[in-house]
Amino acid sequence: MDDDQPVPDSHGVTAELLAAIDLGAEIPGMEGYQLRTRLITLAPGAVYGPLHDHRGRPGTVYVLSGVITDHRDGVDTDYGPGLGWPEDRNTSHWLENRGDVPAVEVSVDVLRSDSIHH
Any idea where the Cupin type-2 domain is (predicted)? Predict the structure, then answer.
């Protein structure tokens, strides 16, 4: 799928909050920010969109099982178990499970406490 095609609607994704820490209570100057860890499952054929960026919400992803395709800058990259990727201010992407088994990732990010939406 190239950049000229629309991103399919999100479907088949579940997210479970595993842990969250108020960073303002831990680090001076981090008031209003949270460190969050989630377990995200993409069912076979799932799409995790829409196309979104990570400005103000940096994080990392680690794939536990299955294969997740990361679509960014016109390039599709498959990540299988034991692999992952950073999500920084330059990241603009959407994710997909093209396989026939669920894909499971651990996602850790820092975000403003008042902007929790993904």
Answer: 39-108
Supply the pLDDT for residue 1: 43
**Contact at 8 Å (CB) between 95 and 69?**
yes
List the domain range (segments joined by +) for residue 70.
11-115
Q: What's the total number of domains in the chain?
A: 1
| pTM, two decimal places | 0.87
What does the pLDDT read at residue 2?
A: 46
Residue 108 lies in a domain: yes
Is 40 within the bounds of a domain?
A: yes
**Residues facing residue 19 across a β-bridge:** 37
| CA 82 centroid distance within chain | 16
Between CA 44 and CA 65 the distance in angstroms is 12
Please tell me the predicted confidence (pLDDT) of residue 117.
53
Q: Where are the beta strands (DSSP E) in the chain?
A: 11-22, 33-53, 59-65, 68-72, 75-79, 84-87, 92-96, 103-112
Q: What is the mean pLDDT of residues 17-25?
A: 96
